[in-house]
Specification:
The complex is a heterodimer of chains A (about 650) and B (about 240).
Chain A lengths: L2 E9 L3 H12 L4 E5 L15 E2 L13 H11 L6 H20 L10 E7 L2 E7 L20 E2 L5 H15 L3 E4 L1 E9 L2 E9 L5 E11 L20 H7 L6 E2 L4 E4 L13 H4 L3 E3 L7 H4 L9 H16 L9 E4 L5 H7 L1 H11 L12 E3 L2 E5 L2 E3 L11 E3 L4 E2 L12 H22 L6 H20 L6 H15 L6 H17 L14 H25 L15 E2 H4 L1 E6 L9 E6 L20 E2 L2 H19 L4 H8 L6 H4 L10
Parallel strand pairs in A: 1-2, 1-10, 2-7, 10-18, 17-19, 20-23
Antiparallel strand pairs in A: 3-6, 4-5, 8-9, 9-10, 11-17, 11-21, 12-16, 13-14, 14-15, 21-22
Helix pairs in contact in A: 1-4, 1-11, 2-3, 3-11, 5-15, 13-14, 13-15, 14-15, 17-18
Chain B lengths: L6 E8 L10 E8 L6 H12 L18 E4 L2 E4 L12 E5 L6 E3 L2 E2 L1 H12 L20 H11 L6 H4 L2 H5 L5 H13 L7 H8 L13 H5 L6 H17 L1
Helix pairs in contact in B: 3-6, 6-9, 7-9
Classes of the chains: A alpha/beta (about 650), B alpha+beta (about 240).
Chain lengths: ~650, ~240
């Protein structure tokens, strides 16, 4: 049995994993990255619209800074996020984008002079100053005060992923693809790596390391209708959960993107609306201003998705019943703009629907309907990215250090992936530098043998069930009962049915008995893991009797700060369990920089307030006004209200052009 | 609708080089066509219902990740972007892309090849400068940034390599993907390499002088990158290098 030793093991080769690997390599560590697919094919590549960073270069982003990005992110999260993490993030994002520029990411740049933009469905002229010519541009996205989303046309994730992957190649970091981690190796509460299956030969081997990082992305594929790549099955989450000690945080916080194209569910970027595209109903009426007079199409994703569904439920959708959809109209942006800035959108609409969105009028409208898109929940870590198992870290979409709370803003995903790779990657490297591998070869070999026996056990199962059908039923349950609108009755049914399905995974028969090139066997060990994740989502949603961000309960429509300002923690204590155990971790209002309030979009008067909110708000206001009187700057004031720790190089000031800080 | 659905006949080359008993064999699968069916949906259905052992690669299924290149009725293209309705008689033949190491059936190791290519051409920014990431970024002409992006759009799907006659004659040929990558870095203002540096990498018949301008690469590139124009541009520059 093969054992591969390294200082740092990174599971997952998307933006977060690769950037973490670079961080560990920069500290002189021997890093190995394993990935199920060639790393440049990771799902990070599918991010289209852009990356939020408060550079404040362009006319429409002038005056932007970390404070505004922080406020937008916290409001977006519906106060579910960890505000200190949000501060760490917004302060590092400008550095991340500038680092990526130096690594060759071809960000779209500002051209001085006048240009035409569509704002609120009207042609507007924007004049860029000569002093910003050639600096990084930004576009508008939902839920933001400024145009903050930096981009390279609509292939931003692709360009970023190639940029970071190329840096990893340059550093000669060991990257092994077509390898899947199937369990973690741990002893005495410490993680020492993973048992890994080679997806070409089927061979099992062990990757033993001083520290292990899970950066495997989201769990969208527990749903049927999702924008996620087929590899986003939540297996990384399950590995952490199965240790029994590591919690998954806020798993019920699942984002539904407003504008995947119908019926394939392929994403059309929020940049469509950010650049001025509008949503229309069956009568061609632009309906979002009726619901959201201020932000219109550019409220946060959870709000826009719900408003679309609400409008469809009123019979205003195109087509009938469950197939009903609305139109996304970007034809008003003009062909030139689309063919330069939204070309992948045009390509997708042409290829999959035979529609050229640059065609004028109705001919160019694209059918859209909300679908699962992003996993706010994930492996619960502290602010350094470490879980309750020493040596086990997590970063990116896989993790819940808790930047997004109950709703992520568009443009904050790839931004988080890279930023967390920088910050957590560096903490992870520190851990690997100061810890040793303290397990015997025998112990490692036993870990491999256990997994081999588990595959044997699956192959000998004899029952009437089919693993592909179990998976399909799980996905239908999630779509139908744990979707955009949720209620107690359906969620209760969902938990019961998912638990039954979980038990049925032991009542299957695998037709072919070979251990490699046997897709049925692969599904048979993955699907029970996916069901564990689905159960964490459904049970978390069932028990959370409030509406917050993307988690919306028809039977509990209000955000309930008094009872539910808390993070859900799901544990799978023992392999014999069939349901996760839930605990709650309260969020402390008395230390928040931004105490809970109204988001500025969504329904008004929909909050059950916590008494501490007003008290803390007063406190914050008085600190601020006193310090303003004393002539303190915004950074000193922030530090006084909510101090936070961050590596010195990332905590440093971000300079802006003309020092418009 | 359902009763009218036609039957598709999809023939697939099955072969497992890791199994000494395996011989390349064409296997025929029949399935009902569904509205808007892509080869992603068709192949997934075959694997779920008809043949659990069939190997192929998909990741994004949206034409973005470059995983699913294969020969569809002899033409290399992305399977996820291929619609079954475009095949009038409902007969489709699928083979793995040539020029790459075969893993099994339709799955080929483009990842390994692309990593080799990337290392060979130095597919990263070569610079002696260190960047202070707290400071305002360097200014780049917006048109130059756009031109760089245009070439950066390559998704390393390998279709240009599988379409290339030179590659068949010269196994070490760096391919349009490699040449495009060199042009991409040569116009990127962050990269300090000179034409003389690039000549060292591609100034031979396995590089820029191997291309016979048959244009298979550009004809099939799913991202519609102007490969021939860029190769011609680089060839002119490299000819100048040779004469100096």
């Amino acid at each position: 049995m093969k054992i591969h030793y390294c200082d740092a093991l990174v599971i997952g080769g998307g933006l977060a994993g690769l950037r973490s690997a670079v961080a560990a390599n920069d500290k002189g560590l021997n890093v190995t990255v394993i990935s199920m697919v060639p790393v440049k094919r990771s799902h990070s590549a599918a991010a289209q619209g852009g990356m939020q960073a408060s550079l404040g270069n362009s006319k429409m982003s002038q005056g932007d800074n970390e404070d505004l990005h922080f406020t937008d992110t916290v409001k977006g999260s519906d106060w579910g996020c960890d505000q200190e993490v949000a501060r760490m993030f917004v302060n590092t994002a400008p550095k991340a984008i500038r680092e990526l520029a130096s690594w060759g990411v071809p960000w779209t740049r500002i051209k001085e002079g006048a240009r035409t933009a569509i704002i609120n469905a009207e042609k507007t002229t924007i004049v860029e100053d000569p002093d910003v010519n050639g600096l990084i541009h930004s576009r508008d996205f939902g839920g933001t005060k400024k145009w903050r989303t930096c981009y390279s046309a609509d292939a931003t994730g692709h360009s970023m992923l190639f940029g970071v992957a190329n840096e990893a190649l340059k550093r000669e970091i060991e990257i092994q693809d077509r390898k899947e981690a199937i369990s973690l190796i741990h002893k005495d509460d410490q993680c020492y790596g993973a048992v890994v299956r080679d997806l070409i030969t089927g061979e099992l081997s062990a990757y033993v390391a001083k520290g292990t990082m899970i950066a495997t992305g989201g769990y969208g594929r527990i749903y049927r209708t999702t924008t996620n790549a087929v590899i986003c099955e939540g297996i990384g989450h399950a590995l952490a959960l199965e240790t029994g000690k590591v919690a998954l945080g806020n798993m019920e916080a699942v984002q539904f993107h407003p504008t995947p194209i119908v019926p394939s569910g392929i994403l059309l970027t929020e940049g469509c609306r950010g650049d001025g595209g509008v949503l229309r109903d069956k009568d061609g009426h632009r309906f979002m201003p009726d619901y959201e007079p201020e932000k219109k199409e550019l409220a946060s994703r959870d709000v826009v998705a719900r408003r679309m569904m609400e409008h469809i439920k009123k019979g205003k959708g195109v087509g009938d019943g469950k197939e009903s959809y609305v139109w996304l109209d970007i034809s008003i942006l003009g062909r030139e703009h689309i063919e330069r800035n939204l070309r992948d959108v045009q390509d997708i609409a042409k290829t999959f629907n035979g529609i050229d969105p640059a065609d004028e009028g109705k001919a160019g409208w694209m059918p859209v309907h909300p679908a699962q898109h992003y996993s706010m929940g994930g492996i619960r870590t502290d602010r350094t990215g470490q879980t309750r198992r020493k040596g086990l870290f997590s970063a990116g979409e896989a993790a819940c250090w808790d930047l997004h709370g109950f709703n992520r803003l568009g443009g904050n995903s790839v931004s988080e992936a890279v930023v967390s790779g920088m910050i957590i990657g560096s903490y992870f490297a520190d851990h690997c530098k100061t810890n040793d591998i303290n397990i015997s070869t025998n112990y490692v070999q036993e870990a491999i043998r256990m997994q081999d026996l588990e595959l044997d056990r699956i192959l000998t199962l004899e029952g009437p069930e089919d693993i592909f059908e179990i998976k399909a039923r799980m996905q239908d349950i999630m779509d139908n009962k744990v979707g955009v609108f949720r209620n107690g009755i359906e969620l209760k049914e969902a938990v019961t049915e998912l638990e039954e399905l979980y038990l049925k995974t032991n009542e299957i028969t695998i037709k072919a008995k070979n251990k490699i090139h046997n897709d049925e066997l692969t599904e048979a060990y993955r699907v029970p893991k996916m069901l564990k994740i689905a159960l964490c989502v459904a049970k978390g949603a069932r028990d959370r009797t409030e509406s917050r961000g993307a988690h919306y309960r028809e039977d509990y429509e209000k955000r309930d700060d008094e009872n539910w300002l808390s993070r859900t923690l799901a544990y799978w204590r023992s392999e014999s369990d069939t349901l996760p155990e839930l605990e709650y971790e309260p969020l402390d209002i008395t230390t928040m920089e931004l105490p809970p309030g109204f988001r500025g979009y969504g329904k008004r008067g929909n909050i059950l307030e916590h008494p501490d909110s007003a008290i803390r708000q007063k406190e914050v206001d008085s600190i601020r006004s006193k310090m303003v009187r004393e002539g303190k700057d915004r950074i000193e004031i922030q530090e006084a209200i909510m101090p936070y720790e961050l590596q010195r190089e990332y905590k440093a000031l971000n300079y802006r052009v003309g020092d418009r800080t | 609708m359902k009763s009218n659905a036609r039957e598709l006949t999809i023939s697939i080359l099955k072969y497992n080089p890791h199994n000494s008993n395996s011989r390349p064999t064409m296997i025929e699968y029949k399935l009902k066509e569904r509205p808007g069916m892509s080869l992603f949906l068709a192949l997934t259905t075959i694997r779920e219902k008809l043949d659990h052992d069939l190997a192929f690669d998909f990741v994004c299924r949206a034409g973005i990740c470059g995983s699913c290149g294969m020969l569809v009725n002899g033409k290399p293209q992305l399977a996820c972007k291929t619609q079954t309705k475009d095949y009038k008689n409902g007969k489709i033949t699928l083979m793995p892309m040539p020029a790459f190491e075969i893993i099994k059936d339709l799955s080929v190791d483009t990842g390994k090849w692309m990593n080799g290519m990337s290392k060979r051409v130095g597919s990263w920014i070569h610079t002696s400068e260190s960047t202070d990431i707290g400071k305002v970024e360097r200014r780049i002409d917006p048109e130059v940034a756009y031109d760089t992006f245009e070439l950066d759009r390559c998704i390393e799907c390998g279709i240009c390599v599988a379409s290339c006659a030179t590659k068949i004659m010269r196994p070490e040929f760096v391919g349009a993907v490699g040449l495009n990558r060199v042009v991409r870095f040569s116009i990127d203002p962050y990269d300090e390499r000179t034409d003389a540096d690039f000549y060292e990498v591609i100034g031979d018949d396995d590089g820029i002088f191997g291309c016979m301008s048959l244009m298979g690469c550009e004809d099939h590139c799913p991202k519609e990158i102007p490969l021939q124009q860029k190769i011609a541009y680089m060839r002119r520059k490299m000819v100048n290098q040779r004469s100096t």
